[in-house]
Amino acid sequence: MFGPARRAKYIAMALAIGALVCGPASSKENLDRSDREAISLFEHIISTEKDFYKSCTISDKWLDYSVFAENVRTYIKYPLRGDLSPPNHMTVPKDIIRQGAGADTVICSEPERAARTDAALIAPSHSGGGTFRGQKILASIMTAQREFSYPIFDVDYRTAFVVRENSRDNWIKTENNKYRRFGDGEIVVFIYRKKNRKWKYISYDVYATYH
Q1: Where are the chain's structural domains?
Q2: Which of these, 169, 112, 115, lies nearest to 142 by C-alpha position?
Q3: Hey, what's the signal peptide range on this chain (predicted)?
Q4: How confident is the model at residue 158 (pLDDT cuts 50, 70, 90)?
């Protein structure tokens, strides 16, 4: 079906992708290359939406969500039959995103995010005079969070896939409780290419939306 040269190329790509999927490579040089490229890639991602990435907007955990085989076949021409999972990596987002983007405050944990939401709801901020479940609404706030997968790179580190979950929630405080009134979100894969030693966004594919 494939000539010797093409088979050799696909075998090399399979070995490289397999090393990323199954865990950190045995070679420290390979692991360092992956992290260096991830740092550079996230520096580009953060810089393109600086206004969004304010305090406590990125999860402190990697998103575990597979890239669909169709996307892999389209952008790196690899005849993959199954979906491709992010590598089982030893780093956390703070190891990668902080270094490249200087985003010291944008990453936080769920307890930190909950504490910030509670603090924001302490002061009365709702002037509409509405009620919720029979109780007067005293304060409201809209929160946003993004969770990223660790990048999946092709064998030449020229193409990268990053899955991102983006969620938004509206919180309200009444006279006796706090409620999540409504929320929505989506899960999207973003595809990047490296040109002239810099990562550039080239396309995306929406995997899911929810309310």
Answers
A1: 4-210
A2: 169
A3: 1-27
A4: very high
Q: Is 190 left (phi over 0), alpha (psi -120 to 50) or beta?
A: beta
Residues 182-201 pLDDT 10s: 789 999 999 999 999 999 99
As a whole number, mean pLDDT of residues 107-112 equals 93
Backbone torsion region of residue 57, taken as left when φ is above 0, otherwise alpha when ψ lies between -120 and 50, otherwise beta:
alpha
pLDDT of residue 8: 39
- Judged against a pLDDT cut of 80, whether residue 4 lies above it is answered with no
Give the alpha-carbon dihedral of 167, 59, 80, 74, to 10 degrees.
60
Q: How far apart are CA 6 and CA 170, in angstroms?
A: 52
Query: How far is the C-alpha of 147 from the C-alpha of 54, rounded, in Å?
Result: 14
Phi, psi of 14 (to 5 degrees): -65, -40
